[in-house]
Design brief:
By secondary structure, the chain is of the alpha+beta class. The chain is 21% helix and 34% strand. It has 1 helix and 4 strands; from the N terminus they run H-E-E-E-E. The chain has a 4-stranded antiparallel β-sheet, with helices on one face. It is elongated. It starts with a helix and ends with a strand.
């Protein structure tokens, strides 16, 4: 995971916000232009109260998963 800084930061930020009583989302996206490339470009970022609070995504990324808490 050393080349996955956004993932490490995103998971940590998500957990810290949850511990603080917030209800963040951990969002994963991919660059559609990289789908057929040898390496798919992906990114993850954290959203809280409708605003990106950590690791803003670049324009053009397509959201593939939004992880939210159940409680």
């Amino acid at each position: 995971m050393r080349h996955r800084r956004c993932l490490r930061q995103g998971v940590l930020g998500y957990r810290l916000l949850r511990a603080a009583g917030e209800t963040p989302e951990l969002v994963f996206g991919v660059d559609p232009s990289s789908i057929e490339a040898p390496i798919v470009r992906a990114h993850c970022w954290v959203v809280s109260r409708g605003e990106v609070v950590l690791n803003p995504p670049e324009p053009g990324l397509v959201t593939v998963l939004r992880h939210t808490s159940r409680s």
